[in-house]
Amino acid sequence: MLLLVHSWWRWLVLLAGVVAVARMIAGSRKSSAWTPSDRRAVLVYVAALDLQVLLGVALFLVSPRIASALHDVAAAMAAPDVRAMLVDHPVAMLVALVLAHAGSIAARKAPSDQARFDRGALLLGLSVVLILLGIPWSRLLSPVA
User: By the 8 A CB rule, do 6 and 144 touch?
Assistant: First the structure.
């Protein structure tokens, strides 16, 4: 059940991320004023990603595949699909989370509306790109814990 929720929640995270980044880019290009809706878009993305990472950590802790990989880390690191779930995916998602939080903070503390949009677009955009790169697309149709 946890894997199913984690797998489906990813789409909401990606949607929220794309919306937040699109608002940042649009605001930057139009030199718009920062609005509560812009702030809310960033917060929704960061909160959705926070929940996704928590689900991922819980899944990591209970996954039989991860437990098996931890018994022989050398062999796990030699198998690309196992290494991806053991190291690559978790690290990419944690870095994406840090970038999303940094984007939220940078936008909040920016000295001007233009700087808010520019910083938000850069850091949130990097976060979304990293998520897209870190998703195990090969397992999309047949997820295994």
Answer: no
Helix (H) or strand (E) holding 104: helix 89-109
**Rounded to an integer, what distance in angstroms lies between the CA atom of residue 86 and that of residue 80?**
10
Query: What pTM did the predictor assign?
Result: 0.91
CA distance linking residue 14 with residue 60, whole number of Å: 21
Structurally, the chain folds into a number of domains equal to 1
Write the burial class of residue 1 (CB in 10 Å: 0-12 exposed, 13-18 middle, 19+ buried). Answer: exposed
Q: What is the 3-state secondary structure (H, E, C) of 31-78?
A: CCCCCHHHHHHHHHHHHHHHHHHHHHHHHHHHCHHHHHHHHCHHHHHH
144 inside domain: no
Q: Which domain holds residue 43?
A: 2-139
Cα 137 from chain centroid (whole Å): 14
**pLDDT tens digits along 68-114:** 999 999 999 998 888 988 999 999 999 999 999 999 999 999 999 99
